[in-house]
Specification:
The protein is of the alpha+beta class and 156 residues long. Helix content is 50%, strand content 21%. The two termini are 39 Å apart. Pfam families: DUF6495 (PF20105).
């Protein structure tokens, strides 16, 4: 498996797509039920292949990722050629960006001496989707990029 298996909840959400995936292999519901019962390892492989296909599709389309912790924000713009990063660090240990109060403080004080910014960019390896997946495994979430785009305007 290249990525990770989708969760039970994700697979349930993608049930119609999974049915289509099985249909492309000429597997109908009765046959799938039989495979699950008599060849569970084959059923597991099918779930893995389907999960990888879904991840590949998502990762190919993703443009922005965010990883926000108590004192830092890592905002990524995933372009065709490279990963761009805007990193924000809060130097006030009493502020927690993961709370509404902390984020509100940041919105009012983003230009203060307690806030440090850094930008960087990095070329992809031979496998851009794997690079993106590694960021997700480290806690980044897919976003529409509003925060990145706002910062790009004000500090760029």
């Amino acid at each position: 498996m290249k990525y990770t298996r989708l969760t039970k909840e994700q697979l349930e959400e993608l049930h119609p797509e999974f049915i289509n995936f099985l249909a492309t292999q000429s597997i109908d519901k009765n046959e799938w039920d039989e495979i699950k019962k008599s060849k569970p390892e084959v059923a597991e492989e099918e779930l893995d292949v389907f999960s990888d296909l879904v991840w590949e599709g998502v990762l190919t389309k993703v443009e922005f990722l965010e990883n926000i912790s108590e004192q830092q924000m890592h905002l990524f713009h995933l372009t065709d050629k490279e990963m761009k990063l805007i990193a924000v660090k809060i130097m006030n240990p009493e502020i927690d960006l993961t709370t509404k109060v902390g984020f509100d403080w940041f919105r009012k004080n983003w230009q203060s001496d307690f806030v440090d910014y850094m930008t960087a960019s990095k070329a992809y390896t031979d496998d851009p989707n794997q690079d993106k997946f590694e960021l997700i495994k480290q806690g980044a979430v897919i976003t529409k990029g509003e925060l990145y785009q706002w910062f790009d305007k004000v500090i760029g």
